[in-house]
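G., the chain you wanted modeled:
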Amino acid sequence: MKRINGKFVIFFVCILISFFAIVIYIHNHAITDYFDGELITERNELWNDEFSIFRQEIQLPESLDKISKSFFLFNHLQYTLYGNSHTSAKDFRIIKYDPENNVQENIYFEIYNPNEVKTTIVINQEINRKYKYYFYFGGNNLDYDYSQVFQIEFKINKQYSRLELSDQIDKLKIELKPNSKWNLSGINNNRVIINTNVNLENVKGILIAQKEDNSFLKLDYQYNKNENIIFFNTDDLSVGKYKVYLVMKDNNKKIKSNSLEIIVSYPVFVSWTLDWEGVNVDQKFLNSVEKISSDFNVPITHFFNPRVLLNIKIPKQRKQELVKWVKDRLNKGDDIAMHIHMNHDILEEAGVKPKYDAKTWDNGISGYDTPSTEYNYDEYKKILSWGLEKLQEAGFDNILGFRAGGWFVNIDNLRAIQDVGFMYDSSARVPQAIGSNK
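Predicted structure as C-alpha coordinates:
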Protein backbone atom coordinates (compact mmCIF):
# COMPACT_ATOMS: atom_id res chain seq x y z
CA MET A 1 0.00 0.00 0.00
CA LYS A 2 1.38 3.36 -1.01
CA ARG A 3 2.04 5.96 1.67
CA ILE A 4 0.18 9.24 1.28
CA ASN A 5 2.47 12.19 0.76
CA GLY A 6 2.36 14.35 3.91
CA LYS A 7 2.91 17.58 1.99
CA PHE A 8 0.01 16.73 -0.29
CA VAL A 9 -2.33 16.20 2.71
CA ILE A 10 -1.33 19.53 4.24
CA PHE A 11 -1.82 21.27 0.88
CA PHE A 12 -5.26 19.66 0.42
CA VAL A 13 -6.39 20.64 3.95
CA CYS A 14 -5.25 24.24 3.38
CA ILE A 15 -7.24 24.35 0.14
CA LEU A 16 -10.38 23.16 1.95
CA ILE A 17 -9.97 25.66 4.79
CA SER A 18 -9.42 28.48 2.30
CA PHE A 19 -12.49 27.45 0.33
CA PHE A 20 -14.78 27.48 3.36
CA ALA A 21 -13.27 30.73 4.62
CA ILE A 22 -13.98 32.39 1.27
CA VAL A 23 -17.57 31.08 1.23
CA ILE A 24 -18.20 32.36 4.77
CA TYR A 25 -16.57 35.70 3.99
CA ILE A 26 -18.60 36.20 0.83
CA HIS A 27 -21.81 35.29 2.63
CA ASN A 28 -21.20 37.55 5.61
CA HIS A 29 -19.72 40.35 3.58
CA ALA A 30 -22.65 40.32 1.20
CA ILE A 31 -25.05 40.71 4.11
CA THR A 32 -23.15 43.28 6.12
CA ASP A 33 -22.18 45.30 3.06
CA TYR A 34 -25.72 45.36 1.75
CA PHE A 35 -27.23 46.43 5.06
CA ASP A 36 -24.33 48.55 6.21
CA GLY A 37 -24.38 52.35 6.27
CA GLU A 38 -24.78 54.88 9.03
CA LEU A 39 -26.97 57.32 7.11
CA ILE A 40 -30.14 57.15 9.11
CA THR A 41 -31.11 60.84 9.27
CA GLU A 42 -31.41 63.38 6.52
CA ARG A 43 -28.73 65.50 8.23
CA ASN A 44 -26.12 62.81 7.50
CA GLU A 45 -24.81 62.84 11.05
CA LEU A 46 -23.84 59.86 13.15
CA TRP A 47 -26.89 58.61 15.05
CA ASN A 48 -25.37 57.26 18.23
CA ASP A 49 -28.27 55.26 19.64
CA GLU A 50 -29.78 52.86 17.14
CA PHE A 51 -32.94 52.21 19.19
CA SER A 52 -34.05 55.84 19.60
CA ILE A 53 -36.32 57.79 17.27
CA PHE A 54 -35.72 61.34 18.57
CA ARG A 55 -32.75 63.33 19.80
CA GLN A 56 -31.86 66.83 20.91
CA GLU A 57 -28.41 68.25 21.38
CA ILE A 58 -27.51 69.34 24.91
CA GLN A 59 -25.99 72.83 25.00
CA LEU A 60 -23.74 74.45 27.59
CA PRO A 61 -24.16 78.10 28.58
CA GLU A 62 -22.03 80.34 26.33
CA SER A 63 -19.96 81.54 29.28
CA LEU A 64 -18.76 78.08 30.34
CA ASP A 65 -16.35 75.61 28.75
CA LYS A 66 -17.04 72.85 31.22
CA ILE A 67 -19.39 72.04 34.09
CA SER A 68 -18.99 69.49 36.89
CA LYS A 69 -22.68 69.12 37.85
CA SER A 70 -25.64 70.03 35.67
CA PHE A 71 -29.29 69.47 34.85
CA PHE A 72 -31.80 70.23 32.13
CA LEU A 73 -35.60 70.17 31.89
CA PHE A 74 -37.56 68.12 29.41
CA ASN A 75 -41.27 68.15 28.59
CA HIS A 76 -41.68 64.41 28.82
CA LEU A 77 -45.47 64.45 28.99
CA GLN A 78 -45.91 65.77 25.45
CA TYR A 79 -44.21 62.63 24.13
CA THR A 80 -45.79 60.03 26.42
CA LEU A 81 -49.30 61.29 25.61
CA TYR A 82 -48.91 60.10 22.02
CA GLY A 83 -46.85 57.00 22.73
CA ASN A 84 -43.56 58.51 21.55
CA SER A 85 -41.75 57.83 24.81
CA HIS A 86 -42.14 55.36 27.65
CA THR A 87 -43.82 56.69 30.79
CA SER A 88 -41.03 55.18 32.91
CA ALA A 89 -38.44 57.31 31.04
CA LYS A 90 -36.25 54.23 30.70
CA ASP A 91 -35.96 54.92 26.99
CA PHE A 92 -33.84 58.02 27.77
CA ARG A 93 -30.19 58.00 26.67
CA ILE A 94 -27.41 60.56 26.94
CA ILE A 95 -24.41 59.98 24.70
CA LYS A 96 -21.15 61.89 24.68
CA TYR A 97 -19.63 62.07 21.20
CA ASP A 98 -16.01 62.93 20.38
CA PRO A 99 -16.11 64.23 16.77
CA GLU A 100 -12.32 64.35 16.45
CA ASN A 101 -11.82 60.65 17.20
CA ASN A 102 -15.31 59.45 16.24
CA VAL A 103 -15.79 57.88 19.70
CA GLN A 104 -19.00 57.76 21.69
CA GLU A 105 -19.65 57.07 25.36
CA ASN A 106 -22.79 56.48 27.40
CA ILE A 107 -23.33 59.04 30.13
CA TYR A 108 -24.82 58.07 33.49
CA PHE A 109 -27.65 60.36 34.63
CA GLU A 110 -30.61 60.62 36.98
CA ILE A 111 -34.25 61.21 36.03
CA TYR A 112 -36.57 63.07 38.40
CA ASN A 113 -40.36 63.23 38.10
CA PRO A 114 -40.83 61.37 34.79
CA ASN A 115 -43.96 61.69 32.65
CA GLU A 116 -44.36 65.37 33.58
CA VAL A 117 -44.05 68.70 31.79
CA LYS A 118 -40.91 69.50 33.77
CA THR A 119 -39.09 66.22 34.00
CA THR A 120 -35.55 66.90 35.28
CA ILE A 121 -32.44 65.12 34.03
CA VAL A 122 -29.40 65.44 36.29
CA ILE A 123 -25.80 64.78 35.21
CA ASN A 124 -23.27 64.34 38.03
CA GLN A 125 -20.13 64.31 35.90
CA GLU A 126 -18.15 66.82 33.90
CA ILE A 127 -19.63 68.21 30.69
CA ASN A 128 -17.01 69.69 28.36
CA ARG A 129 -17.59 71.94 25.35
CA LYS A 130 -15.06 70.11 23.20
CA TYR A 131 -17.48 67.16 22.99
CA LYS A 132 -21.01 66.91 21.70
CA TYR A 133 -23.75 65.63 23.98
CA TYR A 134 -27.02 64.24 22.68
CA PHE A 135 -30.20 63.38 24.50
CA TYR A 136 -31.99 60.44 22.85
CA PHE A 137 -35.48 59.07 23.53
CA GLY A 138 -38.36 57.20 21.94
CA GLY A 139 -36.95 53.66 21.70
CA ASN A 140 -38.31 50.36 23.01
CA ASN A 141 -35.06 49.06 24.53
CA LEU A 142 -35.66 49.70 28.23
CA ASP A 143 -32.95 47.45 29.67
CA TYR A 144 -30.50 50.26 30.33
CA ASP A 145 -28.00 50.56 33.18
CA TYR A 146 -26.97 54.18 32.74
CA SER A 147 -29.86 55.93 34.44
CA GLN A 148 -31.78 55.92 37.69
CA VAL A 149 -35.38 57.10 37.99
CA PHE A 150 -36.83 58.98 40.97
CA GLN A 151 -40.56 59.69 41.30
CA ILE A 152 -39.90 63.02 43.00
CA GLU A 153 -38.98 66.54 41.96
CA PHE A 154 -35.30 67.49 41.94
CA LYS A 155 -34.34 70.21 44.39
CA ILE A 156 -32.12 72.53 42.41
CA ASN A 157 -29.23 74.14 44.28
CA LYS A 158 -26.26 76.37 43.40
CA GLN A 159 -23.97 73.43 42.74
CA TYR A 160 -25.87 72.55 39.57
CA SER A 161 -25.69 74.55 36.36
CA ARG A 162 -28.60 74.53 33.97
CA LEU A 163 -28.13 73.17 30.47
CA GLU A 164 -30.48 73.70 27.56
CA LEU A 165 -31.76 71.40 24.86
CA SER A 166 -31.47 72.67 21.30
CA ASP A 167 -34.69 73.80 19.65
CA GLN A 168 -34.00 71.41 16.80
CA ILE A 169 -35.45 67.96 17.39
CA ASP A 170 -33.74 65.43 15.15
CA LYS A 171 -36.03 62.67 14.00
CA LEU A 172 -35.38 59.49 12.08
CA LYS A 173 -36.66 59.40 8.52
CA ILE A 174 -37.91 55.84 9.01
CA GLU A 175 -39.58 55.22 12.35
CA LEU A 176 -40.73 51.83 13.61
CA LYS A 177 -42.87 51.25 16.69
CA PRO A 178 -43.83 47.71 17.76
CA ASN A 179 -47.16 46.80 19.32
CA SER A 180 -45.38 44.32 21.58
CA LYS A 181 -41.84 43.54 22.69
CA TRP A 182 -42.34 40.00 24.01
CA ASN A 183 -43.52 37.35 21.60
CA LEU A 184 -44.26 33.70 22.24
CA SER A 185 -42.91 30.79 20.24
CA GLY A 186 -45.03 27.84 19.23
CA ILE A 187 -48.53 29.31 19.56
CA ASN A 188 -51.09 30.44 17.00
CA ASN A 189 -51.15 33.99 15.63
CA ASN A 190 -47.63 34.66 16.85
CA ARG A 191 -47.01 37.66 14.66
CA VAL A 192 -45.31 40.94 15.39
CA ILE A 193 -47.14 44.12 14.36
CA ILE A 194 -45.05 47.23 13.70
CA ASN A 195 -46.29 50.74 13.00
CA THR A 196 -44.26 52.70 10.48
CA ASN A 197 -44.27 56.27 9.21
CA VAL A 198 -43.30 55.41 5.61
CA ASN A 199 -45.45 54.22 2.73
CA LEU A 200 -44.11 50.89 1.57
CA GLU A 201 -46.71 50.29 -1.12
CA ASN A 202 -44.39 51.14 -4.02
CA VAL A 203 -41.04 51.00 -2.24
CA LYS A 204 -39.20 47.80 -1.46
CA GLY A 205 -37.99 47.77 2.11
CA ILE A 206 -35.92 44.97 3.60
CA LEU A 207 -36.76 43.89 7.14
CA ILE A 208 -33.82 42.42 9.05
CA ALA A 209 -33.64 40.50 12.33
CA GLN A 210 -30.18 40.56 13.91
CA LYS A 211 -29.56 38.06 16.69
CA GLU A 212 -27.26 38.54 19.69
CA ASP A 213 -24.46 36.67 17.91
CA ASN A 214 -24.74 39.29 15.10
CA SER A 215 -26.13 36.78 12.61
CA PHE A 216 -28.70 38.21 10.21
CA LEU A 217 -32.02 36.93 8.94
CA LYS A 218 -34.15 38.54 6.25
CA LEU A 219 -37.79 38.54 7.34
CA ASP A 220 -40.77 38.12 5.03
CA TYR A 221 -43.35 40.71 5.97
CA GLN A 222 -46.74 41.97 4.85
CA TYR A 223 -47.74 45.60 4.55
CA ASN A 224 -51.17 47.05 5.31
CA LYS A 225 -51.36 50.38 3.52
CA ASN A 226 -54.65 51.41 5.18
CA GLU A 227 -53.18 51.26 8.69
CA ASN A 228 -49.57 51.79 7.62
CA ILE A 229 -48.35 48.75 9.52
CA ILE A 230 -46.09 45.87 8.68
CA PHE A 231 -46.28 42.47 10.34
CA PHE A 232 -44.26 39.31 10.27
CA ASN A 233 -44.54 35.87 11.83
CA THR A 234 -42.08 34.70 14.49
CA ASP A 235 -42.16 31.08 13.32
CA ASP A 236 -38.80 31.48 11.59
CA LEU A 237 -37.17 32.97 14.70
CA SER A 238 -35.67 30.74 17.35
CA VAL A 239 -36.00 31.72 21.00
CA GLY A 240 -33.80 34.71 21.83
CA LYS A 241 -33.39 38.48 21.64
CA TYR A 242 -33.34 40.29 18.29
CA LYS A 243 -32.75 43.71 16.83
CA VAL A 244 -35.28 44.25 14.06
CA TYR A 245 -34.90 47.13 11.60
CA LEU A 246 -35.95 48.21 8.14
CA VAL A 247 -33.56 49.23 5.36
CA MET A 248 -34.68 51.23 2.32
CA LYS A 249 -33.04 52.96 -0.59
CA ASP A 250 -33.59 56.65 -1.21
CA ASN A 251 -31.69 58.28 -4.10
CA ASN A 252 -29.24 55.36 -4.06
CA LYS A 253 -28.56 55.89 -0.36
CA LYS A 254 -29.30 53.17 2.13
CA ILE A 255 -31.47 54.51 4.95
CA LYS A 256 -31.87 52.48 8.13
CA SER A 257 -34.73 52.75 10.59
CA ASN A 258 -34.39 52.65 14.34
CA SER A 259 -33.89 49.17 15.76
CA LEU A 260 -36.60 47.45 17.75
CA GLU A 261 -35.80 45.04 20.52
CA ILE A 262 -37.92 41.94 19.91
CA ILE A 263 -37.78 39.01 22.32
CA VAL A 264 -39.05 35.57 21.36
CA SER A 265 -39.57 33.25 24.31
CA TYR A 266 -41.34 30.04 25.15
CA PRO A 267 -44.85 30.57 26.56
CA VAL A 268 -45.44 30.46 30.30
CA PHE A 269 -48.70 28.80 31.30
CA VAL A 270 -50.38 30.04 34.47
CA SER A 271 -52.42 27.64 36.58
CA TRP A 272 -54.83 29.21 39.05
CA THR A 273 -55.82 26.89 41.89
CA LEU A 274 -57.98 27.48 44.95
CA ASP A 275 -57.83 25.40 48.12
CA TRP A 276 -61.23 25.07 49.77
CA GLU A 277 -60.54 24.72 53.48
CA GLY A 278 -63.81 23.05 54.56
CA VAL A 279 -65.36 26.18 56.05
CA ASN A 280 -68.01 28.64 54.90
CA VAL A 281 -66.86 31.23 52.37
CA ASP A 282 -68.29 34.74 52.23
CA GLN A 283 -70.11 35.27 48.94
CA LYS A 284 -68.27 38.53 48.25
CA PHE A 285 -65.01 36.59 47.94
CA LEU A 286 -66.57 34.11 45.52
CA ASN A 287 -67.90 37.03 43.47
CA SER A 288 -64.42 38.55 43.38
CA VAL A 289 -62.88 35.24 42.23
CA GLU A 290 -65.51 34.92 39.50
CA LYS A 291 -64.91 38.46 38.26
CA ILE A 292 -61.13 38.02 38.05
CA SER A 293 -61.51 34.72 36.22
CA SER A 294 -63.95 36.30 33.76
CA ASP A 295 -62.01 39.54 33.21
CA PHE A 296 -58.74 37.76 32.45
CA ASN A 297 -60.17 34.57 30.93
CA VAL A 298 -58.30 32.37 33.43
CA PRO A 299 -60.00 29.09 34.41
CA ILE A 300 -59.62 27.79 37.96
CA THR A 301 -58.91 24.37 39.45
CA HIS A 302 -61.00 24.08 42.61
CA PHE A 303 -59.35 21.78 45.16
CA PHE A 304 -62.69 21.24 46.86
CA ASN A 305 -62.78 20.00 50.44
CA PRO A 306 -65.48 17.39 51.26
CA ARG A 307 -65.60 18.81 54.79
CA VAL A 308 -67.80 21.59 53.34
CA LEU A 309 -70.50 18.91 53.10
CA LEU A 310 -69.88 17.75 56.68
CA ASN A 311 -69.22 20.94 58.64
CA ILE A 312 -72.06 21.48 61.12
CA LYS A 313 -71.28 25.21 61.26
CA ILE A 314 -72.38 25.65 57.63
CA PRO A 315 -76.18 25.82 57.22
CA LYS A 316 -77.71 23.22 54.88
CA GLN A 317 -78.93 25.86 52.42
CA ARG A 318 -75.46 27.45 52.28
CA LYS A 319 -73.88 24.06 51.58
CA GLN A 320 -76.23 23.68 48.62
CA GLU A 321 -75.34 27.19 47.40
CA LEU A 322 -71.61 26.46 47.58
CA VAL A 323 -72.01 23.19 45.68
CA LYS A 324 -74.12 24.91 43.03
CA TRP A 325 -71.58 27.73 42.68
CA VAL A 326 -68.75 25.26 42.03
CA LYS A 327 -70.87 23.30 39.54
CA ASP A 328 -71.71 26.52 37.69
CA ARG A 329 -68.00 27.28 37.52
CA LEU A 330 -67.29 23.80 36.12
CA ASN A 331 -69.83 24.46 33.37
CA LYS A 332 -67.82 27.60 32.50
CA GLY A 333 -64.61 25.64 32.02
CA ASP A 334 -63.18 25.30 35.53
CA ASP A 335 -61.85 22.00 36.88
CA ILE A 336 -62.37 20.22 40.19
CA ALA A 337 -59.91 18.29 42.35
CA MET A 338 -59.90 17.31 46.03
CA HIS A 339 -58.25 18.98 49.01
CA ILE A 340 -58.44 17.55 52.50
CA HIS A 341 -57.06 18.34 55.97
CA MET A 342 -56.85 15.94 58.88
CA ASN A 343 -59.77 17.51 60.77
CA HIS A 344 -60.96 15.22 63.57
CA ASP A 345 -64.58 15.24 62.37
CA ILE A 346 -63.48 14.05 58.92
CA LEU A 347 -61.40 11.20 60.35
CA GLU A 348 -64.22 10.06 62.64
CA GLU A 349 -66.61 9.97 59.66
CA ALA A 350 -64.03 8.03 57.64
CA GLY A 351 -63.53 5.47 60.42
CA VAL A 352 -59.96 6.52 61.28
CA LYS A 353 -58.94 7.32 64.85
CA PRO A 354 -57.63 10.92 65.08
CA LYS A 355 -54.13 11.40 66.50
CA TYR A 356 -54.78 14.09 69.05
CA ASP A 357 -51.19 14.17 70.32
CA ALA A 358 -49.50 14.47 66.90
CA LYS A 359 -47.20 17.42 66.20
CA THR A 360 -48.97 20.25 64.42
CA TRP A 361 -47.70 23.22 62.45
CA ASP A 362 -49.91 25.64 64.37
CA ASN A 363 -51.76 25.80 67.69
CA GLY A 364 -55.04 24.33 66.49
CA ILE A 365 -57.05 21.67 68.27
CA SER A 366 -59.32 20.59 65.40
CA GLY A 367 -56.79 18.46 63.51
CA TYR A 368 -56.70 20.97 60.67
CA ASP A 369 -52.97 21.58 61.22
CA THR A 370 -51.98 17.94 61.68
CA PRO A 371 -49.77 16.83 58.75
CA SER A 372 -51.06 14.02 56.57
CA THR A 373 -47.73 12.31 57.16
CA GLU A 374 -48.91 11.36 60.68
CA TYR A 375 -51.21 8.74 59.09
CA ASN A 376 -50.01 5.51 57.47
CA TYR A 377 -50.92 4.11 54.05
CA ASP A 378 -54.07 2.24 55.13
CA GLU A 379 -55.39 5.11 57.26
CA TYR A 380 -54.77 7.70 54.56
CA LYS A 381 -56.31 5.55 51.84
CA LYS A 382 -59.45 5.16 53.95
CA ILE A 383 -59.66 8.94 54.48
CA LEU A 384 -59.24 9.66 50.76
CA SER A 385 -61.83 7.05 49.77
CA TRP A 386 -64.33 8.61 52.15
CA GLY A 387 -63.67 12.05 50.66
CA LEU A 388 -64.22 10.86 47.10
CA GLU A 389 -67.49 9.18 48.10
CA LYS A 390 -68.78 12.39 49.73
CA LEU A 391 -67.94 14.44 46.64
CA GLN A 392 -69.59 11.90 44.34
CA GLU A 393 -72.73 12.02 46.50
CA ALA A 394 -72.79 15.77 45.91
CA GLY A 395 -72.60 15.23 42.16
CA PHE A 396 -68.87 15.75 41.57
CA ASP A 397 -67.47 13.06 39.28
CA ASN A 398 -64.23 12.47 37.41
CA ILE A 399 -62.00 13.97 40.11
CA LEU A 400 -58.43 13.45 38.90
CA GLY A 401 -56.30 15.69 41.12
CA PHE A 402 -55.47 15.91 44.80
CA ARG A 403 -53.70 18.27 47.19
CA ALA A 404 -52.95 17.42 50.83
CA GLY A 405 -53.69 19.71 53.75
CA GLY A 406 -50.70 21.94 54.39
CA TRP A 407 -49.21 20.29 51.28
CA PHE A 408 -47.64 17.62 53.52
CA VAL A 409 -47.16 14.19 51.92
CA ASN A 410 -44.69 11.32 52.16
CA ILE A 411 -44.22 8.15 50.12
CA ASP A 412 -47.00 6.26 51.94
CA ASN A 413 -49.38 9.16 51.34
CA LEU A 414 -48.46 9.27 47.66
CA ARG A 415 -49.05 5.52 47.29
CA ALA A 416 -52.49 5.93 48.84
CA ILE A 417 -53.28 8.91 46.59
CA GLN A 418 -52.36 6.82 43.55
CA ASP A 419 -54.20 3.69 44.66
CA VAL A 420 -57.57 5.39 45.21
CA GLY A 421 -57.49 6.52 41.57
CA PHE A 422 -56.12 10.06 41.47
CA MET A 423 -54.15 10.82 38.29
CA TYR A 424 -51.98 13.57 39.77
CA ASP A 425 -50.93 15.06 43.09
CA SER A 426 -50.33 18.77 43.67
CA SER A 427 -48.88 18.62 47.18
CA ALA A 428 -45.41 20.06 47.68
CA ARG A 429 -43.51 21.79 50.42
CA VAL A 430 -39.96 22.31 51.62
CA PRO A 431 -39.10 19.95 54.51
CA GLN A 432 -38.77 21.77 57.80
CA ALA A 433 -39.17 21.25 61.51
CA ILE A 434 -42.79 20.79 62.58
CA GLY A 435 -43.94 22.40 65.78
CA SER A 436 -45.69 25.43 67.19
CA ASN A 437 -46.23 28.04 64.44
CA LYS A 438 -44.10 26.12 61.91
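The helical segments are 6-34, 77-80, 283-296, 316-331, 344-350, 377-393, 411-419.

Shout if anything looks off.
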